[in-house]
């Protein structure tokens, strides 16, 4: 597999031979949500040796429910600012409302004056700059927290984005940077990243510069449609991608079509996982699918073997 | 009346609920697909949304003849999208949020704005149903302005359904804000419960009335129901865990037109929501709803 040039940007480590090396990063994404990313990542974490796990689905993180991390450090994620009008100093000029492009300034109903809706404020600071009464403070925002933990599979880095917070991409980058640091220190063999759904800001932050992207999809029209968007994205950034169809037996023809589409785009197909009620049961029991066993667990083991070979290229 | 269909966790069935609810409501219905990273409602409506409504963000364009490199623009910019380097000013359009601050503070009036496209808004009509969808350009990171542009297409009369993106971050807020009611779709599993609780917290912050739809009911455990009981959340609908439903969905077909037993389920959800609509079925004033940038 070709090495993307972005690799040169990351901090080099020094291997036993004295050559700079870098711990490979595998990120699992899907485009469409709910295709089984987290169940697959949790199982891979059990199967992998010497692994660091990073949950980069920062606004709906679930991996901790299965891996049950013991948190040893909690870090506050401070990102950007928010405008706050000091009500006593507000001269009711209305300048803030006029200049705000995010609809974040609300006129007070009772007395003349304005307030900022923190959920709409994007922290641009234009109202702070232009208020004739200088009545607007610009406060640092706590946009979430992130955690350094240990689990039965080894180290884990995870996070929780604040409700309605912005900058999920920056939090994803923070989690990844910490995972890389830990992996470098421990001389880990691989970093496994549980990625977010979609193709926007947090997804771009999760896949930039990784060794490989595994796309877990499902044999549905939405799964196929959204996988197409993700393949465009990985091609756009020049990141190697592989595809795995989960619950393939729900619609075998659709699974075939998805795999054919992937191959046409030069994307590796690394196996299929069948529908198995044990996947939900594992989740309910707080275990990984491979710990519980069964048909899907066998499939996941095969996919993991293929993924390792693909990454080793 | 605007009803948003949202969830913390992805893949719980937001689009299934939005589409089948849309097909079960009487009168004019508008469906706004605000999941602009992965817009899927059109697949189930067999609609081909069209249109050339390119949505952009206004980004700075510096007139080098007027600029004296004073640096006021980069001092103000919170996103590091404009910088004075050496003898010139460099703009990083992909970092710009389009706040317009640099244009306003430039003492030399050297900055004007140009539109940088981030996606398109497309529309289709299927019977009494209007579909509006946003489609984000691949490689684009900034999503809320496009969602706000889709929201700005809402009709003032009849029922407006919003298919929201998953999660609880700025994209979900942009889609849900200003709605009269939020339907939170989840599944009866630990992941579903964890992410439902996050979504409930979010709509509570927004102060919007909400209820829960449990999809694939019977497949996991009782955690979601116990949570709804404890929190006093109304369970609006349970969609059974049924392989026929999964297969019908996989083929991109609406449930209510292909599995007759599902019709009464969505009809009762439609009736419940119609009962919530204010007299005249108008929209409540959208206090503070952000306007689109386009």
Q: What do you see in this structure?
A:
The complex is a heterodimer of chains A (313) and B (294). Chain A is α/β, with parallel strands linked by helices and 313 residues long. In chain A, the strands form 3 sheets. In chain A, strands 5-8-9-4-10-3-11-12-13 form a 9-stranded mixed sheet, with helices on both faces. A two-stranded antiparallel sheet of chain A has the order 1-2. Chain A starts with 12 loop residues before the first strand and ends with a helix. Chain B has 294 residues and is of the alpha/beta class. Chain B has 2 domains: 154 residues, Rossmann fold (3-Layer(aba) Sandwich); 61 residues, Alpha-Beta Plaits (2-Layer Sandwich), CATH 3.30.70. In chain B, the strands form 2 sheets. Chain B has a 9-stranded mixed sheet with strand order 3-6-7-2-8-1-9-10-11, with helices on both faces. Chain B is elongated and about 70 Å long. The chains are: A alpha/beta (313), B alpha/beta (294). At the A-B interface, helix 4, helix 6, helix 7 and helix 9 of A face helix 4, helix 6, helix 7 and helix 9 of B.
């Amino acid at each position: 597999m070709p090495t993307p040039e972005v690799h040169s940007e990351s901090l080099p480590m020094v291997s036993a031979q004295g050559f700079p090396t870098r711990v490979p990063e595998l990120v699992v994404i899907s485009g469409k949500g709910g295709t089984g990313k987290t169940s697959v990542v949790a199982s891979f974490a059990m199967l992998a040796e010497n692994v660091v796990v990073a949950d980069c689905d920062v606004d709906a993180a679930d991996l901790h429910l299965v891996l049950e991390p013991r948190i040893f450090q909690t870090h506050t994620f401070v990102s950007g600012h928010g405008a706050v009008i000091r009500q006593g100093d507000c001269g009711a000029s209305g300048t803030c409302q006029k200049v705000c492009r995010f609809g974040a300034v609300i006129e007070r109903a009772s007395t003349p004056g304005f307030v900022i809706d923190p959920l709409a404020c994007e922290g641009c600071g234009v109202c702070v700059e232009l208020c004739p009464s200088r009545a607007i403070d610009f406060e640092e925002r706590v946009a979430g927290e992130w955690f350094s933990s240990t689990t039965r599979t080894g180290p884990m880095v995870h996070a929780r984005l604040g409700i309605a917070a912005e900058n999920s991409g920056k939090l994803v980058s923070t989690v990844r940077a910490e995972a890389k640091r830990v992996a470098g220190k421990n001389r880990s063999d691989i970093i496994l990243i549980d990625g977010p759904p979609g193709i926007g800001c947090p997804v771009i932050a999760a896949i930039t510069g990784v060794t490989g992207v595994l796309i877990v999809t499902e044999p549905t029209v939405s799964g196929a449609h959204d996988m197409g968007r993700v393949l465009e994205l990985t091609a756009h950034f020049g990141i190697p991608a592989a595809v795995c169809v989960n619950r393939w037996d729900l619609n075998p023809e659709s699974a075939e079509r998805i795999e054919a589409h992937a191959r046409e785009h030069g994307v590796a197909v690394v196996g299929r996982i069948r529908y198995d009620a044990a996947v939900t049961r594992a989740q309910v029991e707080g275990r990984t699918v491979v710990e519980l066993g069964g048909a899907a667990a066998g499939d996941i083991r095969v996919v993991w073997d293929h993924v390792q070979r693909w990454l080793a290229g | 009346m605007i009803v948003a269909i949202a969830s913390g966790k992805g893949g719980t069935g937001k689009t299934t609920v939005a589409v089948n609810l849309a097909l079960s409501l009487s009168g004019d219905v508008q469906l706004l697909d605000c999941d602009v990273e992965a817009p899927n409602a059109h697949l189930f409506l067999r609609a081909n949304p069209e249109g050339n409504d390119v949505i952009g963000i206004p980004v700075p364009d510096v007139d080098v003849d007027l600029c004296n490199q004073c640096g006021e623009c980069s001092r103000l910019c919170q996103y590091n999208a404009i910088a004075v380097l050496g003898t010139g000013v460099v703009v990083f359009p992909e970092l710009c949020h389009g706040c317009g601050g640099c244009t306003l503070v430039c003492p030399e009036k050297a900055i004007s704005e140009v539109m940088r496209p981030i996606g398109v808004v497309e529309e289709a009509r299927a019977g009494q149903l209007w579909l509006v969808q946003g489609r984000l350009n691949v490689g684009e990171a900034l999503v809320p302005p496009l969602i706000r542009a889709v929201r700005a297409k809402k009709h003032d009369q009849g029922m407006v359904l919003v298919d929201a993106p998953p999660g609880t971050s700025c994209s979900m807020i942009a889609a849900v804000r200003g709605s009269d009611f939020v339907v939170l779709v989840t599944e009866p599993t630990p992941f579903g419960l964890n992410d439902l609780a996050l979504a409930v917290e979010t709509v509570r912050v927004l102060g919007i009335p909400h209820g829960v739809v449990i999809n694939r009911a019977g497949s996991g455990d009782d955690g979601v129901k116990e949570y709804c009981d404890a929190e006093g959340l109304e369970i609006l609908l349970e969609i059974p865990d049924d392989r026929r439903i999964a297969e019908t969905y996989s083929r991109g077909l609406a449930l209510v037109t292909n599995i007759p037993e599902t019709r009464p389920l969505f009809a009762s959800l439609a009736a419940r929501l119609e009962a919530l609509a204010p007299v005249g079925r108008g929209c409540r004033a959208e206090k503070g709803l952000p306007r689109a940038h386009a």
